């Protein structure tokens, strides 16, 4: 082989070796381990495990937690009143969560389409809630019936006894001739009739959830 050929052969061999030299695996492995360790510290543990916890809790939990949050920031007196109103609902087979939902919707702590944006937050009073429940019982509704009414129309315990409930029952009796057993059946089917306090007479005023036009 000529001198130029030897020179070119050696140069070519060097060229092949340099770019493809492999790094020492003994030094690479610890680096990878350190990178993984750093990554694990940078991410939440759930992400490292591969678990995914949705940031959006279930609707049921949200409603309950909203009512709990409202009661949690109340004064001691307010919390006592809230607890007392839970007791007023103890005759029915409701969980604490369901009681909070009923009271929350009735008194503006949980949004309700029935009130729209008009309902201001109030702390329920045991006497008022109990008086409304007693009045409904006087209409022939059993506790089993009231359980169904409260599920369909929880806002009823936040309505005015005089201006809403008694007024509407009188309208149903006098104008429609609905009383006694017929009234009971109506209230089981459509308890929201107890809360109608608007009558647009066909000229909508955007308060449909409380309007007699729905009757």
Automatic annotation (TrEMBL):
The keyword Oxidoreductase does not apply. Pfam families: mTERF. GO terms for biological process: DNA-templated transcription termination. Keywords: Transcription, Transcription regulation, Transcription termination, Transit peptide. Gene3D superfamilies: Transcription termination factor 3, mitochondrial. GO terms for molecular function: nucleic acid binding. Belongs to the mTERF family. This is Mitochondrial transcription termination factor family protein. It comes from Turnera subulata.
